[in-house]
Here is the input.
Amino acid sequence: MRRLMLTVAALATLVSYAQAGIPKVPKGNNNNNNTNNQNGEQPGPFGFPGQKTLGETLKLNQEQEAALIVIYSKYRKLEHQIQQAAANKKTDSNANNAGSGIPDAGTCKGNMIMEIRLILATDDQKKAFQQIVDDLGKKKKKV
Here is the structure.
């Protein structure tokens, strides 16, 4: 019985030391800027805001949000393919991107903007989206 009590006391002490020694890391506070923005949301393709942010800014209804999700997923895949092709072109000096069938980033971004404009219903949504597109072209000031 005495041996059991000593074992339990030793385990309790080890557990308390182990818990005290493990630092707590707050959730959502990672410094990986490639996958999440400040709100913990994945950014959109080609520098666009995330789906949630864009949906709230434009005040999209459910059908429009569903269409935006489809558009974003399509262009995220294209953006990834473009990045892969660029990386392959850098590593392989003999690579020729002309026959790959992947359009350039500017063309894809323009096509994505046109597809998003097609789902917008009100003039307010269209004006707000145009403001977002205009702001994407501007360089941010360093603070």
In short: The helical segments are 2-21, 51-58, 62-91, 105-119, 123-137. The first helix runs from residue 2 to 21. The two ends are 67 Å apart (CA to CA). Residues 110 and 120 are 16 Å apart (CA to CA).
